[in-house]
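Worked example (supplementary).
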Amino acid sequence: MKRLVYLLGVVSLLIGLNSCVDIFDEIILHTDGSGTYKYTINLSASKVKINSVLALDSVDGQRVPKLPEIKEKIALYKQKLEDKEGISNVKVDANYDDFVFKFSCDFSNVTALQNAVRDIVKEESRDKNDPIFNETWLTWDGQQLVRSIPNFKSPINRLKAEDQEALKNGKYISVTRFDKPVSKCDNPQAQINPSKTAVMVKSSTHAVTANPSILKNTITLE
Amino acid sequence: MRLYLTLPFLVLSSTLFAQQSDDFIPKDAVTVFSFNNISILQKVSMDELVSYDFMTELQSELFDGSTQGKTLKDSGIDFNQKMNIFYGKNPEFELSGFTFGITDKNKLFSVFDDFDRVESIVPGVEYYNNYFNHLMIKGNVGLLIRVDSDQEYLTEMTDSIWVARGFELPWVYDLDEYYDEEGNPMEEGDIMEDMEGIEDGDEVEEIIEEDITEIPDAENDELFKNYYELRDSLESELSRKRLELIVNELFIGGKNLKGVDARLAEQMKHTSDGIFYLDNSRNFKNTNGLWYFQTMFPDLYKDLNELYSGNVMLGDIVLNNQSIDMKLEANYGPALGSIYEELNGSKFDKNVLKYIPKNNSGYFTYNIDLREGYERAYDIIIPILSQEKNPRISANVLTVELLDEFINKDALFNTYKGSMFGTFNGMKRVKTKRIEFFYDEETFEYGEREIESEEDMPVFTLGFSTARPDIPEKVLRHMSRLTSQFKDMGNYWVYEDAILNSLPLYMINKNGLFIFTNDEDLAKNHSNGYGSEAISAKTAKNAKKSGSVYGYMNLGDIINKLPREMFTEERYELLESMKGKKGIMEVTSSATSREKTVYKMTYSFDGADNAGKYLLDLVNTAYILSKQ
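After joint prediction of all chains, the assembly is encoded as:
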């Protein structure tokens, strides 16, 4: 749990001290239920601030990790994910010059992806009985995908008002791709591309962090 | 720099009666702030007063609900007497407190209501106690004092008694062993295994895990409990004995700091609103880190100690309607004074004015003659060190003497003469690059591209005088051959991504100055100076006339605009303590003689608060600074 708290602390520290955080998540779902998950965090708009924070020992009473520690943590979680059943081809591309982090993995089915993420968070969590671990974020029945993002305790509430305001400059873009055409989706913010094989929901990082349910979408294929 | 920030300490006073509050400052105090005119503090509420860091930490147990809704006026304190805040530390103990006049004891104890009267330890002196705080009252003077044993000294004493009684220390560290992840000692073979693949010269990163050392639980570990019981009782007894010694000296023997140091006594006669006293020579003597030096090389320690003799700082503060004037004399003994005199004999370099923009938020100039200072220090310190027969010191002396012979001192001291300047030009939007992700509206596939971006950045310039511009030029040319990040741009050099891996650093090597700046405008458009946009000679009159040091700060600009990320936790705390302040602060220094340098500081403001409030703010800032 110490590690999770530490990681959350680091994330909230970085988010809190940055004017702009862009997040992109993408699921490519094949008809057989397997697919690829991609997640990208772009902090490059604030690299000066990040570098200045990384040069400090602590900020607001929170210890600032050194780059080797951050790299070590990322490698640890990559390894943990690789060990999970149904997950393969885990890749992490971390650009520490511009602070752009790209993560991707293949999954045998969406349940395997969900279980892998849930297990890792649970392993690190103090409260193993948190109801969040019983929630379902991804289901696929061969025709319909219901997706949302887990509502883990958001570090946003701990941010100062001006930092929260600054987060509104960041984009959160969620894309889902299919082999077959999409017939409909129920999120009013969602767009379907002209070839009807992809659905995109755009929002701000602030809005998603404050209320993850705004990305919830039920996508039905033809 | 700390010296000039220390200036604001200085504080209020003046009334001259026998057996006044200033007659009860213990001789062991090293620092004293004496408020002459404490009536200006009458309007400051007690709640506000005790919220200052220097009051809270000075005597935190004193102040609970008893101060609510009261002002100093309600506290029974005599505003016709000085209030003297003192602090002192030596290798054995630390003392702090204040002395003050009393007009009404009933009112006093309505504030200090946690104190209980106890049996007096000095005849004729009332004694009140509250845990670690002791209040002694003689006539109409109060002494509030706290005496704490030095923790290192206390540990040594406790360990010594504990071991002499045949006990093992509760924890034993074997520094020759390494520990594995489980905390078990590692065999030599294991350690060697860990070192496999590491070549000499490789950088080895040592990860220091937190919370490895488990402190025994006092409730479950009798040995640990008993050790600390012994330590606590020893601490209590040592503090009690030391307190007795101090108050007996004060009240019976009549020994006080004013009596043993004529310089303080003289300073106390000043009619300024406040005075300041700091005995640096005793700070040197009392430095714990010198114990090894003192033990191993007593003669050398004595000689170096003499260098510091007479090193006392004395200050005056004058409160005006819209400003606070401070004057601080840094006094030296003849040996140290002669080094400073040579060091500070440099003339002001007028070239620096070209590079200080009119609209700056603050700047400083620092003029020293490093060559002359070096020669004088060499003449004074090397003979002292040469008398020592210790092989290590002797080898070091030889090294210094050989370097002095072989090194081209003309080249060295002409390259870096010692004089420098710095400016803070406010916040500017600076260009950086960032990665942008863009989406194809047809496919929702994304790509990424590098685009220009802007971030707020404080703009600084730092430069030093040089008579050998060819030498830094050689270094820059060498660097440019090593990396393409170093570029000669004709009028200036640029080192790409030098600052925080993101921003360029510009270097200008012209007009007898070598300048570092992150101001693109200065490098590209003003490499020969700002011209008519530079600070005028008239505005810079004080800087030119000043001795070795001059500083100017627009507090509103500097304190309130600098981004929080630029500072460490401690420096940020200092900055926070000054947030909201406005006004202009100017520091000048006199020519340095063998005896002293005089620093003057003027802090002008136009705020609604009275000068007393500004003064307390400054004292608080200085207090925080002094802790760091």
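Two points are worth noting when inspecting this output. The two ends of chain A are 44 Å apart (CA to CA). The interface with chain B takes residues 17, 22, 24, 40, 42, 44-49, 51-53, 55-59, 61, 68, 95, 97-98, 100, 173, 175, 177, 193-195, 198, 200 of chain A (CB under 8 Å).
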